[in-house]
């Protein structure tokens, strides 16, 4: 089993106690593909990471650097010389070099570029002009294009002359004399078609080329909806400027998912980031939560008198707040998923809101019954039991409003609704939870 | 822009106020691909969903059903007759039919199978024997295989005879006379090689075939690491039984990401699930949280006396608990990501634990300073300020232990660590937060 073997390799390399010699590690690394090495680096604490990277051949370094997340990539690059970096990226594809260079300090990028041939430099400078999160950032220029009046026989002999086709070439592209994109020609069609046919007769035009400015997640959607392996990319004049392949699209999907997961908790760092950087990535939302926790505390502060008289209110009040927090996070998660998958729009948001209200009422009835029974059994106080149940229902309803409105408002403000949204919604449910419970207690218990 | 147009179509269909006639909706649906229609269905409340689905042609229904999430798929299927369902799935690929049939009630599945030809029935019954979350569940049998002693010329003419190659065919497979898998032959290599060569001379053997029992997320890893478009699947005897294509792997990646995101909040439902089902999917973790909230309340209950004497302890105690909860969720998220990406193992978990401890101490110093200053400014009580700062540091350290141990223990118990983990870790930080703050107050303030 290949995958098991690699897991073993990784464990051996990372395990201090295995006491490998440099040569033994080098041999293990030689058996691994560049993305497996990248995975090993991403699974390593910083010290081991530098050691492993330093043991790689220069040619391997480029491929590995490209596979790495941005943070680790830039860390490792900052430790190698300009000459080594120039050498490492030499054999990479355009989008890969651009991916690595675009995060470098200006000065350094210029030096690396000046080490390149003029043709390469111009191609890369073109690539660097596209924003990272657009189709342009995923673009490769290794396209094969033919003309509509070529015969399939000519195309076949042209392909044979290439000796080797670029990776993930499932189709070639058809352009006119001005390099305007006309359509595509799947390789499978080329080999199943009578060679006397013309490109024009069998080229496909139903799936349009991708605009270079399209956002990368929209590129992913197009690939998924149409089961694409590669697609042509055109500029605003309709000229073919490159292609995007499925492997880069899969990376986009993975990164998006990763950011969604981490963003909810207000974290943004690689798994084995050094402590200082990890602390920095998390302190913002912790500090925000400190502010909101003081807001919740101020709410309690209003009710010092009633707590002073009936101390077990302090015992029970976190229950109401905590239940609201969990319910709000549930609603928030559903809305975030709906927004990410572009399922939510103005026409169905009302239905969603009503549905969430219905859910909060159904679960409100179930949970407030449970909470009332438990409270009665604990404190033998009928009024208190009714009070906490009512406060819980109120807080579950507030959790719906917060869980839906907060992400929608963040999006309207052009903020990523996935980042730190849970800190904001739980503030609402804390405040409403404490206020409704202690407020009702003030009215009915004193 | 294709993607914009489809977003518009979707909005028009879903908008009540657009008052479309049945024929107008039908026309809009005709312009959409099956996965776009699936997306429209997933973005629709249940009532509109049934209407849209009822307007589809029977041939379209099968493709659309396959693209849908399991829940919606089974809902829609439960409303159509066995004849219609048999007709709808007729043209689908093996893995697609299996995907739809495997969730049907036993009786119904048998009826549908009995409507099929013997060959189809046997293929599908074979497919149904593989667990859904393995390579077998992603398998298609539309493989093209050749023998090692075939010449490339023979292969080319064989391919031409096929008229059309199966979707995502970037390679064909090489087997011996007993159908044992030997290697693969990329289409791009076939057309760039001298036709007099033999298959044996140019076939590739460096990437092994996938075992039919491999877990689907390991399949995804292999595809990603090797930038695969398709891969052979073999049984335990090494026989070629089918192939997996990248489009199905992308679905696996998407579904995993979706489950990770939703699982954290204890939610498992499609975005527009009806209220009853949504309530049911969420009530378990809400009820669990009720139990844990009562545990936290019992902790406070121990300290009734001290709260009775110093009421502002009740005001401040949620701050300590809440900060611990956010920090624990951050650690939990990093560990869950590391486990999902298989970056964490016995060799690096110790480093990760030490790093998290360091992070909690760094952020503990920053945040406890802030909390001490704020508390002093509010209550003018020096001891209280030191107390709450100390309790916060203790709770941040407990948050690391909970955030790392809870997912690891859940995994050891063969539970999905991503599901409801945050409810468990926040219980720990609530209890430790209340206990340390009120406990220290009992010692130093009375």
Helix and strand pattern of chain A: HHHHHHHHHHEHEEHHEHEEHHHHHHH
Measured as a percent range, the helix fraction of chain A is 55-70%
Named at the architecture level, the CATH assignment of the largest domain in chain A is: Orthogonal Bundle
How far apart, in Å, are the first and last alpha carbons of chain A?
Answer: 71 Å
Oligomer: homodimer
* Cα shape of chain A: elongated
Mean pLDDT across all amino acids of chain A = 91
Q: Largest interface: which pair?
A: A-B, 134 and 135 residues
Q: Beta-strand level of the residues of chain A, as a percent range? A: 5-15%
Predict the CATH topology of the largest domain in chain A. Tetracycline Repressor, domain 2
Gyration radius from CA atoms of chain A, angstroms: 29 Å
Question: What is the number of domains of chain A?
Answer: 3
Query: What does the largest sheet of chain A look like?
Result: 3 strands, mixed
Strand order of the largest sheet of chain A: 1-2-3
What is the count of β-strands of chain A?
A: 6
Low-confidence stretches of chain A are: none
Determine the structural class of chain A based on helices, strands and strand pairing: mainly alpha
Counted by DSSP, the helix tally of chain A is 21
Under CATH at level 1, the class of the largest domain in chain A stands as Mainly Alpha
So, the CATH homologous superfamily of the largest domain in chain A?
A: SLC41 divalent cation transporters, integral membrane domain
